[in-house]
Write a structure and sequence with these properties.
By secondary structure, the protein is an alpha+beta fold. The chain has twelve helices and 16 strands. The strands form three sheets. Strands 1, 2, 3, 4, 5, 6, 8 and 16 form an eight-stranded mixed sheet that branches. The relative contact order is 0.16.
């Protein structure tokens, strides 16, 4: 017999979530501390005192004492068990009423399709059945949306699975980019709170380049403080002085090679003279950068959180001025490698547009990811009278937010 409870013990909730196939960082009890502009509560369903469904719900206050409730990547339960799903949704609705919610939004981590680029995209066996079960439980499905802006969480993501990841399994181009980064002297360092401000500076440069608003240093600091053992920053560093000396030595060797050429080595002379121009240009650029930024610089970074057997690369950035040193390739490679070293099975590289035709995917595909498409968002009406109006206001605010972001 099912029973519904609120105020679950965080340790019990986390233990259940971590052991479940649908485990997700956004359903960890600690995530509620990160989203401190929302209230949060842990709710669950027991079958004879055994926890069989659990959810962290986020509650946002609206005007006139009303609220909206969001269950990110949850609830965590067996979605093929229709009686359990209906029981949980019924009590989630009652919970919403007790908090004067207009509606409850949820986006369970149920995959609709999972495929490699170029493979046939088959719908996963249980996906359509689960959608029907949720619709039969009074949930309003928002459909197979394509744009990231249409949902709270991206419906598509690039997720690297450990079994598909090693340097040997990477595409030829990726291996080449890694060799360039190594050759140019890019060094990767792993750290935590001590790297926050350097990472924030990289992210500011990324914001400026992409014309988007991301986060302040205080938010990255909060993530690392909330997940002290699971969160880490990877930074790519470059010693400009050491690189300058190496390029100078290479330049001198090239000059010596030119001096030793015979008159009939026309093609070889042309190649070496082209290299001379390239090396002179790089020496000049390095001198200028060292004078402006010092001998050692941070040129790329990632921030990752490990949870259960999963990991999420939440933020990543690069200084465009050092793009030729390929720091992003090496930083992401080392980040994914570290996540797997910590015992995870997957490393999520983040969201994608549904048309699978954007620059994000072009870069992320260098690491042999699986493209995972989720079934999307569902809304549970709580206050039926105001539900339609609240949906219109919600979509209007998302549209206004998108427009504001595009103007920056």
């Amino acid at each position: 017999m099912y029973t519904f409870k609120t105020g679950l013990n965080p340790d019990e909730h986390d233990e259940y979530v971590k052991a479940h196939p649908l485990a997700n960082l956004l359903q960890s009890s600690a995530w509620g501390k990160v989203k401190n502009n929302w209230e949060s509560e842990l709710i669950g369903v027991y079958d004879n005192e055994h926890l069989v469904a659990s959810a962290q719900v986020l509650i946002r206050k609206l005007l006139l004492g009303m609220t909206m409730i969001y269950v990110p990547k949850g609830p965590i339960m067996d979605y093929t068990n229709e009686s359990l799903v209906k029981f949980m949704i019924k009590h989630l609705q009652l919970f919403g009423k007790s908090h004067r919610a207009l509606f409850v939004k949820m986006d369970p981590a149920i995959k609709y399709r999972a495929f490699k680029l170029g493979e046939e995209q088959k719908i996963l066996a249980e996906a359509e059945n689960i959608i029907k079960i949720l619709q039969n439980s009074n949930l309003k499905w928002q459909g197979l949306t394509q744009k990231m802006a249409d949902t709270v969480q991206p419906r598509f993501q690039a997720n690297v699975h450990q079994k598909n990841f090693s340097e040997e399994q990477l595409p030829k181009k990726t291996k080449q980019m890694l060799r360039i980064a190594y050759k140019k002297g890019v060094i990767i360092k792993k750290g935590g709170l001590e790297f926050v401000h350097q990472f924030a500076e990289i992210m500011k440069k990324t914001e400026k380049r992409k014309g988007v608003l991301l986060r302040e240093a205080s938010y990255y600091e909060k993530l690392l403080q909330t997940f002290p053992k699971q969160a880490f920053i990877m930074l790519a560093k470059l010693d400009l002085q050491e690189l300058y000396e190496n390029i100078q030595m290479h330049y001198q060797e090239n000059e010596q090679a030119i001096a030793e050429l015979k008159k009939n080595q026309i093609k070889k002379r042309h190649q070496l003279e082209e290299l001379r121009l390239s090396l002179k240009r790089e020496i000049s650029e390095l001198q200028e950068k060292a004078n402006s930024f010092g001998e050692k610089v941070i040129i790329a970074g990632t921030l990752t959180i490990v949870f259960a057997k999963t990991s999420e690369i939440l933020y990543a950035g690069m200084d465009e001025a050092y793009k030729r040193y390929m720091p992003a390739y090496l930083t992401w490679f080392k980040t994914i490698q570290e996540a797997f070293a910590q015992g995870t099975n997957t490393s999520n590289m983040g969201g994608l547009e549904g048309n699978l035709n954007d620059g994000l995917l072009k870069f992320k595909n260098n690491f042999n990811p699986t493209i995972e498409e989720f079934i999307g968002e569902f809304d549970l009406p709580v206050n039926k009278f105001f539900f339609a109006l609240s949906q219109w206001i919600y979509k209007l605010k998302k549209h206004q937010k998108k427009k504001a972001a595009n103007r920056t």
